[in-house]
Amino acid sequence: IFSWSQADGLDVVRHDPLDPVNLAVDRSGHLLVQSSAGPEGTVYSFDPRKPAEDVTILPLQPSAPHPSAAAVLPVNVWDNGEFADQLDLDTYEYTTLAQMFARDVTSPRAQEYVSPDGSLFLPAGRVFRQPPNESYPGMDPTGWRWSNNLVATRFTTATPGRRVYVVSSAENRTYGATVRADGALGDLNPFAERGGESVTVDSGGNVYVANGQVFVYDASGKEIGRIEVPERPIDVLFGGPDRRTLFILAHHTLYAVKTRAAGEAFALAR
């Protein structure tokens, strides 16, 4: 797990082999980490200011209301039906990619993880596993695993009622939605006919989509600009002291672009 700042450059926050794949930050400043370790994956929390051995494993628990907490959600979801037969034998029609995506992201999860301070909850969807008795290069003893949380490019956090943007990667389409109290999405509507790896939004309502380059849309879904990047971007996120820096992550490089509008405020802004 790395951090970067203008003053200190690139720094290692944790180098322990705990298989982190995604992060979120709770109100206390602790990191909530989605790990690929274990048959169902693992979620843990730690304070980056404390010693490396100070790690809390979060238990999987039944979902419950969290009126003052923010939901942690994958910013991109891949639904293409490869884990189930999608043919309706009554109509002989296949479920479309849009229908699969909507069915997935609007369905509440039965279980979740909750940060130690109670400010974040991470809905836990089903984990599909490749049986470990089949041998592939790089496979660990628990086999390959897939879930929305494990394969997402990034997590986003949003309080119930807040508008978010999510990518349907199989469709290559971006949607707008409202986060419900249970962490599922409501009021789901197509926003832009371009998806890709990641999406973020600024305080002016402009939406930035990483898809080969960074495409910029206004709040109505009209394309208004494009940010050319030397490498294919895999994530976009606002940061910096004034939140006017758009960080663009590629496989080998972290790029930064100054923007006119600041990034949207954090869901748990103090």
Note down, in words, how this protein is organized.
The protein has about 270 residues and is mainly beta. The protein has one domain. The chain is built from 2 helices and 26 strands. The protein has helices at about 95-105, 150, and strands at about 1-5, 10, 20-25, 30-35, 40-45, 55, 60, 70-75, 75, 85-90, 95, 110-115, 120-125, 130, 145, 155-160, 165-170, 175-180, 185-190, 200, 205-210, 215, 225, 235-240, 245-250, 255-260. A 5-stranded mixed sheet has the order 7-12-13-8-16, with no helix packed on it.
Give the helix tally: 2
**Stretches where pLDDT falls below 50 for ≥5 residues?**
none
SSE sequence, one letter per element = EEEEEEEEEEEHEEEEHEEEEEEEEEEE
Number of strands: 26
The amount of beta strand, in percent, is 35-45%
Strand order of the largest sheet: 7-12-13-8-16
Largest sheet: 5 strands, mixed
| Rg, nearest Å | 19 Å
Features:
26 strands, five-stranded mixed β-sheet, mainly beta, 270 residues
Write the layout of secondary structure elements.
Blueprint: E1 2-5, E2 9-12, E3 20-25, E4 31-35, E5 42-46, E6 56-57, E7 61-62, E8 70-74, E9 76-77, E10 87-88, E11 93-94, H1 97-105, E12 111-114, E13 120-124, E14 128-129, E15 145-146, H2 148-151, E16 155-158, E17 163-168, E18 173-179, E19 185-192, E20 198-201, E21 207-211, E22 213-217, E23 223-227, E24 233-239, E25 245-250, E26 254-258
Parallel strand pairs: 8-13, 9-17
Antiparallel strand pairs: 1-2, 3-4, 4-5, 5-6, 7-12, 8-16, 10-11, 12-13, 14-15, 17-18, 18-19, 20-21, 21-22, 22-23, 24-25, 25-26
